[in-house]
Structures are given as C-alpha cells and as structure tokens.
Design brief:
Shape: globular
Order of helices and strands: HEEHEHEHHHEEEEHHHHHEHEEHHHHHH
Number of domains: 2
CATH architecture of the largest domain: 3-Layer(aba) Sandwich
Number of strands: 11
Structural class: alpha+beta
CATH class of the largest domain: Alpha Beta
Strand content: 5-15%
Distance between the termini: 13 Å
C-alpha cells in the first residue's frame, strides 16, 4: 500500500527537524552509579504519575538508574524523530504513537519487543486490546507497547441536556449533535453549545475533523492516490464542522485544542465536547473538574458511516541504537505491565489509571467501579476502531484520524492551517479546501510515480 520511498522521506524530515532546532527538554533523575536508562517521555499527567512512581522500579532494579527527558507533545515528536532517525543514540526508551511505530519499524529504527515480551513471564502481550496491538505492530511483531490507548467519543452535560428536553442517543448522528448544540447554546449564560478543536496541527483540529470527514463519506485519496479534498463529501463535512463551531462553539475556536476544550467542559463553560476518550482523566477528577458525575458519554457521531472513533496510543519503544536494550526493556515492561496499573490505582487513585491499553484493566473491580460511566464505552470504541478500513470508499492508506504515511506530518499541518483559518473566518471553506487539495496533490503524485 505504501510506496517504497520511506527512507528518503524520513531523511528529509530529519534534516528539517535538526535545522529547526528541537530543544526544551527537562531532565529528571539519573546520576546514580548503575547503568543509566534515558527515557524520552511526553509531559502529561499520566506520564508525570509514572515518573513519580519510578523510584520503586529503581529500588527493585538496583543496577539501573532512570533519567527522564520530559517534553511537550510537539517537542517530543520533533526531538525523538530527529534522534531516532539519525541514529543519535541519546535515548534508550522513547514515547511514540501508533503513527510512528509501524513506519519506524519498517525503517529498522526500533527493536522487536515481541521477542522480549515472549521471554518475560506474566507480561502477557495478548492482553493488549487487539486493535491497539495491531496498530503498534509491523510484520506480526510489536515494536512499541502501549502505555495508554484512546478512541474518541461525545461528552455532554447530562443536566443541561435534560433541561433542554433533548434525548441524547447512545449513537448520535452529527446532525443530531448540531441540533443539540443549537438548543444548548447559551451565550448570555456563558455556556457554548459545543467545543470542537480549531487549533492548527495534524494532531489538533485534524484529529476530530478527519473522523467527521470519514463519517460524511469523504477520504483524502482514492485508491490511485488522486487527492479528494475538494470532493463534495469532504466539502460537506468541513463546512458542517466549521459552521457548527462558528455558530454554536466556544469563543476563540481557531486557537482551541484538546487542553482548551478540556478546560471549557470541566469548568462548566460548554455543554458538549467531541474528543479523546482520555479526557475523562480531567473531567472526572474532583481536583480539576467542576462537573464530576454530570457528564454523559456517547459513541463518536455517525452520518453516512458509523464507528468513527479514532485510535491512538502513547507507547514505549526501544531504538535499535540503545546500548542497553535489556535494561531498557525491564523499565518498558514495568511501566506497561498489569502490576503497574494496579500500583497506580492503589497508590494514586483508580481514576488515574492509564486507560485503554489492557483488556484486564476493565476486569479490575475497583477500576470498573471508578470507570462505570465511561469505561465500557471507551473499551468498545477502541475495539471498534478500524484503521485498515477508515472510510466508506476504499483508500490506499491506513489510519482513522491520520494517514500512516511519513508525509502526513507536513501535509496534515499545512491542511490544518487552512482549516483553522476557515474556523477563524479569515477564508471560506471552499478556498481552504482548494489550497488543501493542491498540497495533497503534490504528495499523491509522488506515490503515483513510485507505483509507476
């Protein structure tokens, strides 16, 4: 399905990253007398919990010292990609996603972790949710193992929905969501009808928008790599998304990403939000949210197509350049084990357990109770996600909310900037998609040439 041009594209990408300068790391730990394992990790709440619990790993493994390099998501992608692709060797463990893993495995940049898992008693690789396991695999083996996984769903204020006389279906259509947003929109009361991402970035506005495009029957390319971003289906989806957020969405939508919408809903400033299932760690945390227990959850909305929830994982991989892969695996297997999940629950609280990685997590009585409102739907959404068949019509790529091709980091970013401009009202949807189509055609032609 992918043209054999990956190494050349990766080299170009790395050059861009190195020239742009990828600094900003925050180092934590290290400095002991044993082997130092350097871990590049994304800075969010679940990862901060892992760092706080890491001393227990060091106590159980006295010959290993951990050094964490904690980075924001954008910094992490840039710095880790530059390091791994150039064989820099400064990291023994890297936090990557199911976007990078199969591509990097094909390039020979990652260590086969299934071989380690098979030799580790009790690790149970088959306990990982199957769709997630497959997305982190290449040629039948896992090259990264999930720390947590997520899909996407609709979150809404049950009390506001009930007061408005709305019956929210378990599997709503996008039109039903838009109609509800119109009824729930209350500018005078300081509550928007819905919050949707509008911030530029292939992992920002395009994440939810791509699932809307899929739902409306659209796609990025046809089977022959002809760009389709100016098709009627894509235009209808994008116009719907832009109209909905402009008419009934939050103020400053063009600069709103995941964090901004999380704040809007958790602080009671919006009635609905469509986004990642992992948002529950904010919404259901009494220390961070004013709406604990007031949120209802529904499947990712449908239109022409159903089962539109995305599939994503922050996972741990070991670069082939690591000089200490055995010790690196000891840490990776600890942080992604059943025992670790129980440790988080028992020591930090069950609402803080990293969700969506292992099936057995949902069988823990304490977690099942804490996650009663959202746990079953999260698991179902992850299991139902189908990156191999994300669209109504056939496509030459895989991925639900992204295209698993190396060019997508740049292509998606460029397209997202056009969409964000439309959300801001600076350009029309038609003009945004006309420019996006040109960007997509350039990438499509390279694949057509590679297949010729």
């Amino acid at each position: 399905m992918r043209a054999p041009r990956k190494a050349a594209v990766a080299a170009s990408l790395v050059t861009t990253l190195v020239l742009s300068g990828c600094a900003g790391a925050g180092a934590i730990g290290g400095g002991g007398s044993g082997t130092t394992i350097t871990v590049a990790i994304v800075s969010n709440s679940q990862m901060a919990d892992a760092i706080s619990l890491a001393p227990s790993f060091e106590a159980e493994n006295p010959g290993i010292d951990l050094k964490f390099v904690s980075l924001s998501e954008n910094e992490a992608r840039a710095k880790i990609t530059a390091s791994v692709a150039t064989g820099g060797g400064e990291f023994d463990v890297v936090m990557i996603s199911n976007f990078e893993t199969p591509q990097w495995a094909e390039n020979g940049w990652l260590t086969n972790l299934s071989e380690y898992a098979d030799a580790t008693p009790g690790y149970d690789e088959d306990d990982f949710i199957p769709t997630l396991k497959e997305s982190l695999s290449y040629d039948g083996s896992m090259y990264a193992v999930p720390f947590y996984g997520e899909s996407s769903f609709l979150m809404y204020r049950k009390d506001l929905v009930e007061a408005a006389g709305i019956q929210m279906p378990e599997e709503p259509t996008w039109q039903q969501v838009a109609d509800a947003a119109a009824k729930l929109d209350n500018p005078a009361g300081g509550v928007s009808g819905i919050c949707l991402r509008g911030k530029p970035g292939w992992g920002e506005v395009l994440a939810p928008l791509d699932t809307v495009i899929n739902a409306f029957g659209g796609r990025w390319y046809d089977e022959d790599w002809n760009a389709q971003l100016d098709s009627p289906e894509v235009e209808a989806a994008v116009q719907f998304y832009v109209d909905t957020v402009r008419e009934h969405g939050q103020a400053g939508a063009a600069t709103s990403g995941f964090s901004e919408c999380a704040t809007q809903l958790s602080q009671g400033n919006t009635a609905m939000w469509y986004d990642a299932t992992s948002a529950v760690s904010v919404l259901e945390d009494p220390s961070a949210s004013n709406v604990v227990g007031k949120i209802g959850y529904a499947k990712a909305p449908s239109e022409v197509k159903g089962d539109n929830g995305w599939l994503y994982s922050w996972a741990l991989g070991i670069p082939t350049t690591s000089e200490h892969p055995d010790d690196a695996w000891k840490f990776v297997s600890w942080m992604t084990s059943k025992e670790y999940l129980n440790k988080v629950g028992n020591e930090l609280g069950w609402e803080r357990v990293p969700p969506g990685s292992r099936i057995s997590t949902y069988e823990i009585p304490e977690y099942a109770e804490a996650a009663a409102a959202f746990g079953p739907l999260t698991l179902d959404s992850i299991e139902s996600a189908d990156p191999n068949n994300p669209t109504v019509d056939p496509v030459p790529y895989t991925g639900v909310q992204f295209l698993t091709i190396p060019e997508f980091q740049d292509l998606g970013t460029r397209v997202s900037q056009q969409i964000s401009a439309a959300v801001a009202g600076r350009i029309s949807v038609q003009d945004a998609l006309a420019q996006a189509q040109q960007y997509a055609e350039v990438v499509g032609k390279t694949y057509q040439e590679g297949q010729g």
